[in-house]
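Need the bound structure for protoporphyrin IX containing FE, inputs here:
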Amino acid sequence: MATGFARFRYLAGALALMFVVAMAVPVSAQQPNSVNPNGSAVKEQQLLDQLKTIQGRGSIPDTKSYVLEHPAGRDWRTFHNVTLRWIGLIAMAGMLVLLAIFYLWRGSMKLRSGFSGNTIVRFNTFERFTHWLTAVSFIVLGITGLNITFGRKLLLPVMGPETFSTWSEWAKYSHNYLSFAFTLGVVLMFLMWVGENFPTAADGEWLKKGGGMFDKEDKTHPPAYKFNAGQKILYWLVIFSSLAMIISGFMLMFPFYGGLDVGTMQLAEVFHGVVAVLFIALIFGHIYIGTIGMEGAFDAMSDGQVDLNWAKEHHNLWVEEEVSDSRARARMRPAE
Ligand code: HEM
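Answer from helper R.:
Posting the output first, comments after.
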């Protein structure tokens, strides 16, 4: 009898142990196979579709932070990671390809009458300082800005995470601080050259002849004052694109300032990105014509002097004005 009772105690103990072990197994292992742990009731996408936004409750004053996800945020991310990269690639690489084709076909625009050896002042020190302040800050802003769009895709795999994050940190600082130098450059450029960039009758003829750029024999000689019609178009595009970049850029640098909401911030980013890549493509064209595209042009922005023959061929009306001005100055000089 005593042994039978002892056996019963062992059996009861073993059953109790099995029960404890069974309870300790993870809950998921006890689920019958028919239950899908990714059940549709917990799918984010369904929540988003139904509620349009996933939002929590918070106790800090910044109510924007209560929103965890909303569809516009996803659209913006697709724009930033996909659409903007394509727009940038097509605009910038497309422009480089066009310039290469144009150069192969046309070559450098030569001086028809050759260099005379006499020079004329084209841009004074202040004009050149302003130009290079704008240009250098633009180039750094361009490179560091493109890092935000293309860096993760192109540089991260090459540089590795450590180097890429150090470079990106410095790039971001440069991007923020140089925006002030660029703004100053653009304001000065606007004030300094606005008077010479209004349309004149000569611009129509210049445009009709395509500035002589498509005449391989270099025979066309459209008239121009200090700036020809092409340069005036570039000037106004630079002024308006810069204005767009400056306004949207400062909105991004001081986010939500003045009560702006998330949607407006996203719009500012989209605008900043699209105008930037188009602006860079435009400046590729400008750099081409100021360097290899036209013989003698770069001198104007390096030491400020251009050959007299260059000035007569490309800006004849300006040379006439300069000559008559200097004659007038000479006439006004008191007799010795
Ligand atoms: C490496 C970069 C650059 C080079 C080599 C360059 C070269 C030149 C040259 C040679 C001129 C004088 C053309 C003439 O005498 O008629 C000029 C003018 C000018 N540049 Fe630049 N530039 C550069 C970048 C920039 C940038 C980034 C901007 C604006 C964001 C800019 C805006 C202008 C404007 C508005 C003019 C006056 C209109 C014109 O000549 O087209 N430049 N540049």
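Comments: The chain has a mean pLDDT of 88. The CA atoms of residues 1 and 47 lie 66 Å apart.
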